[in-house]
Amino acid sequence: MLIANEHPDHGKPLDAADAATLGVAAASEVERFLAYREGHKPTPLVTLPGLARALGVAAISIKDEGHRLGLGSFKALGGSYAVIRLVVEEASRRHGRTIDISEFRSPEVRAVAAGLTVACATDGNHGRSVAQGAELVGANCVIFVHAGVSAERVEAIARYGAKMVRVAGNYDDSVAEAARVANENGWIIVSDTSWPGYERIPGLVMQGYTALLREALRELPEPPTHVFVQAGVGGIAAAVAGHFSVVFGTQRPFFVVVDPSRAACLFESARAGQPVKIAHGEPTIMAMLECYQPSLIAWRVLSRTADAFMTVEEEDAVAAMIQLARPSDGDQPIVAGESGGVGLAGLVRARADETSREIIRLGSDARVLLINTEGATDPDRYHELTGLDPATVGQAT
């Protein structure tokens, strides 16, 4: 299902604060910080000419975040960046001088970090990033996970030294519990979703994501005409749409937000014309997108910069995973986790439906940008859904 954005704010410029958070200068600062991260390198931008021919569009490019900083997800850019920024700012305050983010490994910063605790709720990937950032800077870390987070994902977070806390219920329940406990203990909550009175830190998380867009734009031979990005609470979708609205202005690409039909909080917010919390029903296999209430800062950005909202089904996500792993017509294989290929799933559904094609003007001249937001961060689940071993994808091609 696809609907056009009919919000009264659609097409209006971003708020000044959001434009600053997601703009070019901020993205350049994130990239400067990444230059000090050991092992950092830009992730691949993969062109898929065979798939483009099959779908009847001019070009498809996919930014493959399955290779990001050893975490296998775009979230590696957000949580760790926010943690280190916050610790460096606190060290600057205590030492009475501006400490540059390039000094995050210095004894001065680590001494301050040792007395701080950061916390968050997670479906898996954001928590790994926060825990990694805490380990890098020497801070304490507590991560809250809900009942649906797999043991493998919990173990992957704990490897970075985080204390793990299980919470009954779903993702939104874990967000509430993390905020409650952090407030009681004086911890710093580093969430990728925002609520009234809590926006700056989620804004820093989103700011971290903009680095992948700078990388992509440097490699694309022409700007995209269409962008399909999957959404949970909306952070990555808002980062992409917001940054592109700053860079391209009125010439920005047509932007489509893609939700799982079982957790379509942004789609339903678009229908309602305001952010809404939806009922928790049957879980979705798109585990990283299983969110039932949008981030307020993300909604504020997307209400202005998203052009359409759509949903995809469980089988669409699995089909996209398989399509990327076993491409036809000579395309490069890509390992995409359950949530990683959802943007492609949205493109396939939109291209197959005449009404959707007309709404988003998806013609044969379309140049589409997608983001593989995660690799096989749970290899067992990947094999269960696709029948493929992620370690061997592409070896036979």
Automatic annotation (TrEMBL):
Entry keyword Lyase: yes
InterPro entries: DiNH2opropionate_NH3_lyase (IPR010081), TrpB-like_PALP (IPR001926), TrpB-like_PALP_sf (IPR036052)
SUPFAM superfamilies per the UniProt record, alphabetical: Tryptophan synthase beta subunit-like PLP-dependent enzymes (SSF53686)
Domain Tryptophan synthase beta chain-like PALP: 38-354
Entry cofactors: pyridoxal 5'-phosphate
Organism: Methylobacterium nodulans (strain LMG 21967 / CNCM I-2342 / ORS 2060)
Gene Ontology molecular function: any one: diaminopropionate ammonia-lyase activity
Name by which UniProt lists this protein: Diaminopropionate ammonia-lyase
